[in-house]
Amino acid sequence: MPAGFLPEPEFRRVQSLVPILCVDVLLRGDDGRCLLIRRRDRRGGEGWNIVGGRVHKDESLAAAVGRHVRETLGPEVVLSGFDAARPDRVAAYRHAERDDGPFDPDQHAVSLNYVIGCSGQPEARGEALEFGWFAPGGLPEADEFGFNQGEVVSALLEPYSSS
């Protein structure tokens, strides 16, 4: 078992007791379009999502961002400089499904959200069934997002709406 990992039963117990730290990344191309992935949730549903997931024990935030991008979109994606200590937003994902914000059926999660420029050739891997590029004005409908992430994406794009 890799360092920083708990056996599944122990992790599920921790997950049921405390919030889990995550990083989520809204990738933007040079043309301003956003990259979203389509993925399944543990209940079998599918939706558009931003790239991300848990931060491992002793893993830096920058390393967690890089790992999730590589695992989901491949090693050819190059991230533009970003400051991992300065997330663009923080989102709390409640454990219970709800209509007024993001949720995660597996856990209560606190996610540091980043908008990061990227280049290279993405390839859908790992949890990504596919990926798509979306103009900020042409995002999927709210009910097409997984985990109510449409609200997170809209909030992350708000500072760019006048550009």
Describe the structure.
The structure is a single chain. With 163 residues, the protein is α+β, with helices and mostly antiparallel strands. It has a single domain (19-160), classed as Nucleoside Triphosphate Pyrophosphohydrolase (Alpha-Beta Complex), CATH 3.90.79.10. The chain is built from three helices and eight strands. It has helices at residues 8-17, 61-73, 149-157; strands at 20-28, 34-40, 46-49, 51-54, 78-79, 89-93, 109-119, 128-134. Strands 1, 2, 3, 4, 5, 6, 7 and 8 form an eight-stranded mixed beta sheet that branches.
Short key terms for the protein model shown above:
163 residues; alpha+beta; Nucleoside Triphosphate Pyrophosphohydrolase; eight-stranded mixed sheet; 3 helices; 20% helix; globular
